[in-house]
Amino acid sequence: MRETPLLFARPSIGEEEIASVCETLRSGWLTTGPKTKLFEQKFGQYVGAANSIAVNSCTAALHVSLAALGVGAGDEVITTPLTFTSTANVAVHLGAKPVFADIDETGNIDPQKIAKAITSNTKAIIPVHYSGAACDMDAIMRLANEKRIAVVEDAAHAAGTEYKHKRIGSLQTASACFSFYATKNLATGEGGMICTPDAQLAAKMRRLALHGMSKDAWNRYTDKGSWYYEITEAGFKDNMTDIAAAIGLEQLAKLDAMNAQREKIASQYNTEFSKIPELKIPVVKSFTTKHSWHLYPLRLELGKLKANRAQFIDALKTEGILASVHFIPVHLHPFYRNKYGFKPGDFPNAEAFYNAEVSLPLFPSMTQQDTQDVIDAVKKLANWYSK
Fold first, then answer.
1. Residue positions annotated with a catalytic role
2. Which residues contact 353 (CB under 8 A, 6 or more apart)?
3. pTM of the full predicted structure?
């Protein structure tokens, strides 16, 4: 039992990020400016995207992407029920109907279930690269291309993930949307990025992300800018600040090293927990050639245990290990049940996954002792609760 509890997640912020923020504060540029533009350029180069637009969250990235594609009233957007609510909320905000397709054993959306959910009203598909494992993008793109449906990737967990040796963000989808929330692999506190191969779509996304203005606001206050602008459409206030971008630039430089540390910890977990029949390690398919391991979603074999998931997590806390759960399926939340009539049992795979899932601590600054403490606690409880 640890004397100091091990947090579930902790951002890896060093002196480089602190110095970069201080430099930005002294520069006079606090909101969208040169740091943001440089971050867009560097992140686009990293993932292999032709166009990158920095925004203030992955939610904003998804919302802007759907809006730029013309998603609206009467349209349907297919996504997974095993995700954070924002993935579905953005469709609701635009007047569209969220439609869910169940998951496979990886936790990712099942292309066969997508095929059954497609109707004449389907305007977009949002696959979520759950935990940092890639979705089956070839299968999804075949469906989308056949039906002329846009694909918007929710890549909130997937900074650094590779699908068949291609980084997420470089695939030929309408867009890939990244999160830089405080717990993410690349953290700016709040922040996100849209990556798209389509220059025309990117231009529309840039306008929508900043009020629908004809020019970037920050250009108006440089010697190359002008006070004059036009509102070409009713846009949003989704731009990233230079303060966030200053952190992002330093985090990006460390991302591969931080992900490698995550992979090392996940490998140790896999080695130890694969030996225990009461536990099920994450299923990763071969097309995920680089897993970013944003999460480590351990699953309990509940039929072999005398405890449920909540009891297991409470016992871990007693051992000094703080775990979490990802995610409560979206269709089970009251808003979605009341508005759309969803009910328990509609998506049995997602519900079974949720009921058994425990997200273990996984972050780059964990020490070897931290990792061993997690392993020891989980093994102890698996043995204690074993039938």
1. 184
2. 82, 103, 107, 299
3. 0.97
